[in-house]
Amino acid sequence: MRFLLVEDNTELAEAVVQRLGLDGHSVDHAATLAAAEDCLAVAEYDLILLDVMLPDGDGRDFLARSRDKITTPVIVLTARSQISDRVGALDQGADDYITKPFDFSELEARCRAVLRRRGGSARNEVTLGAAVFDPMAGTLRVGDAVLDLRNRELRLLEVFARNPGQILSKSQLLDRLFSADAEVTENAIEVYVGRLRRKLDGAGVRIETVRGLGYRMSV
Amino acid sequence: MRVNLRKPWSIGRKLTLALAAIAALLALVSWGMITSFAREAAGRTQDNILAASATSIAETLRSEAGAVRLELPYAAFSMLGAISEDRVFYRVTAGAEVLTGYADLEGPGARPGEAQFATLPYRDTVVRAVSVMRVIGSGGEAVAITVTVAQTRAGVEGIAAGLSRQAGLVSLVVFAMAVGLSAFAVRASLRPLTVMAQSVAARGPSDLRPLRRPAPAELAPLVAALNRLMERLGGSIRRSEDFITEAAHRVRTPLAIVRVQAEIALHSVEEEAQKQTLRRVIRAVDESSRSAGQLLDHAMVSFRADDLERERVDLPGLVSGVAEALRPTAEMKDIDIALDLSPAAVLGDAILLQNALRNVLDNAIKYSPAETVVRVSVMTDGGEVRIAVSDEGPGFGEGPAAHLTERFTRGEKVQGIVGSGLGLTIAEEAVAAHGGRLDLRAAEGGGACVSLILPGV
Fold first, then answer.
1. What is the pLDDT of residue B252?
2. Is there a smaller number of Cβ atoms within 10 Å at the N or the C end of chain A?
3. What is the DSSP annotation of B265-280?
4. pLDDT for B317-352, tens place per residue?
5. What is the pLDDT of residue B404?
6. First CA to last CA across chain B, in angstroms?
7. How near does any CA of chain B get to the CA of A151, in Å?
8. Closest A-chain CA to B368
9. Domain ends where: B307, B330, B361?
10. Residue A178 has what DSSP assignment?
11. ipTM of the assembly?
12. pLDDT at residue B74 tops 60
């Protein structure tokens, strides 16, 4: 996916760009509202991540001003946690909000929810052998059958789909699938891998166990 | 400076009393004037009749054979009887000689051609007397004859007293009407004040817009002062809100940087011990940001609960809004949020109620195992509305559940879950501000069920 990140704190912005890059997303960074407008004039984005407090204005005012021009979904990044503030952001045309500091799995979940609400776009579909995987809709088409993937299955498949042929350790997968605050064991990964294997049955896609190292998906 | 702490009199009371005093004074003066006019008019009538009587007696005087003779005409006395039953005295003198009548009746000094009046004591009473002088020729010399007629004053006094009584009565009625009308006029003139007070009192706690209603010239300075005060108040509230925003921003942005960096590191390190350390860092960041958020929420709840907004809040709408906002969080653990909403409404502050429900629902998601269902229902039960949130988590454990709403208290079964212990406190305070309560119990199947119970509309 292609993001536009509007955030004036350079350190945070760089870290977010790097982190989203790890998940295979490309991110353009604008430090001001003016820069954001320039970016929007020349490029198409799937999603805008908009900070509330920017040097050249309030992100929410920007939203209210340009909501009819920009059709790209917007998730507001807010440093406040008062519900009134969040509601204010939604009233002014944001699709959702997330409070700093945020969990990237939560950000991803929210992006997915927003894009699903907005109807998504076909260009996010990934072909895996005989299966077509739509990470936004959370569906997997194998032949004529459309299977619904649960959130963790979906995220697991996303990780595999981005790294075909690569060995991924249980520990790596664990951090992609669970929040840092969840107490889970690596056995949980086996459960999800097992389910995913069943759903991919007949698609010509295999998730092999590489003894002692982890898993590898091959098409 | 000495400050007078006595409660000042109401302006209305003051004005009404002043106007009543003025009305009383005017009534008294008018009564006095009418009384004196009446007395004067009655007196003048008596004088006229007395003069006519004396003149008609004087007219009968004639000189006959060198002596003055007179015939007392009956009409002279009967006309005096016309005004009252008062006693009549008379005397006719020629020079110093009394011709007829009461010798001891001394009239006012008479002058020719002009009737002289006087009020005199006579015998045991007071009389009104008139003297008329006529000069006639008698036996070749001119003799000055004085006719004096007097009458007691009981009749005249009676008439004057009667008129005065009536005037008093009229004055009293006028006074009463004046007092009534002043009270009405005072209330009508003070009405703009009352209206202004009501329109200020009817405002919501955060409504600091200036008063725009046109005010009478006398109230304009007050309205202007009030508007300036509200502007200053609004400014200071905005400044403290800005301060909170700024403070939150300052704290949360570095926390966000730490968290992102830790996540990036978590994905790049291989060694399990290092990973474990990074997970701990992330957990600590989450914990502190959550606490900061809940402290702010808690401050906001206390602030808003002090002066509670009372709007009609549609609960199914509010509940589905909060559920939608938390659905992505729930999805991360493949938790379904199932809603069962029957129509219900309460009077209150939607933002507070959202905050309360959000904390309860957030808790339920946090403590639920993956791939379970959190159920949220809205039900009416008698006069009460119940928003129940039940999960399939570990429940509240063995200890008493009620103490979990105390500040910074956390349940027994929370190891490894990030929390500040303020969530239920916030929910409880928000619900209590609406005259409701929080109910904690075991859900069917062993999870926790937290209900927000509110008085319905």
1. 84
2. C
3. HHHH---HHHHHHHHH
4. 999 999 998 998 898 888 999 999 999 999 998 888
5. 65
6. 51
7. 6
8. A182
9. B307
10. S
11. 0.82
12. yes
